[in-house]
Amino acid sequence: MATYTKVKLSGSTDGRAVKVAATATAGTTIHTGSTTSTTYDEIWLYAQNTDTSAVKLTLEWGTATAADGNIELTIAAEAGLVLVVPGLILQNSKVVKAFAGTADVILLSGFVNAITA
Fold this sequence. Notes:
Elements: E1 3-7, E2 18-19, E3 28-32, E4 39-49, E5 55-61, E6 70-75, E7 82-90, E8 95-100, E9 106-116
Antiparallel strand pairs: 1-9, 2-9, 3-8, 4-7, 4-9, 5-6, 5-8
């Protein structure tokens, strides 16, 4: 039977939002997946934009190779807690990184359900 443990994003300090400082690849580290092959990280991410303009956000999902792992979306001006990753799975030490069109205005919050088979 699988066990679930809710944990903070590894790039977070004390569960706080991670500020996206990078404006190009390789992005700001948000989370590093489990090193255990029998553990899957179910990742939930929410974005907020503190700028008065819409900002493009790129998530590098497990690879920095464009198109292979990029998730791109635009976060509306002064939007908060917009769901950007609805529980996608990552494992084997793969890393989620992020960069944005403007530095230091996008913050990513969320959590991980570590699922062990």
